[in-house]
Amino acid sequence: MNPWIIAELLFIGLAFAAWPVALNKSGVVGAWPAIIVVMATALSQTLCSLRGLSQFPPANWLLLFALAGAINGVAVYRYARLAASPVIPVGVLVTLVSALMIVFGVLLDWAFKGAAPTGRQVGGYGAAILAIYLLAGPK
To answer: Which of 124, 133, 15, 31 lies closest to 81, judged by CA?
Structure first.
C-alpha cells in the first residue's frame, strides 16, 4: 500500500479516536459537544472539498445522500453523548464503535454491492465480533 495512503489512514484513525476522548476529558455533558463537533465537521468538510464542488451530484442521488447524512448526524450525536458521559469508558466506546463499523461495513458492502468477503476477511470479521463480545459482553 502506498505510504501516503497509510499516513492518511493513520491520521483518520487518530482523529476518529481523539475527538471522543477530548469530549470525555472536557466533562461537558449534554447536546453542545455533539453540536459543535458536527458543525465543525461540516465546515471543515466543506472547506476541504471546495475544489471538488464544480459538479453537482445527480438529483436521484441527493435524497440518498441527505438520508445518509441525517442518519450519520443522529449517530454522531449519540456517539458524542456517550463519549462525554461516564456510562462507558471512552476507550471501550471507541473500540466498540470501530469494531462494529468493521462488521457493518462488510455486511453493507456485501448487501449493496455484492462484494462477498474472502475466507481471510471472514476470519478478521469474526475476530472483530469476538472483540465486541469481550469488550461489551457479560462480565
So the answer is: 31
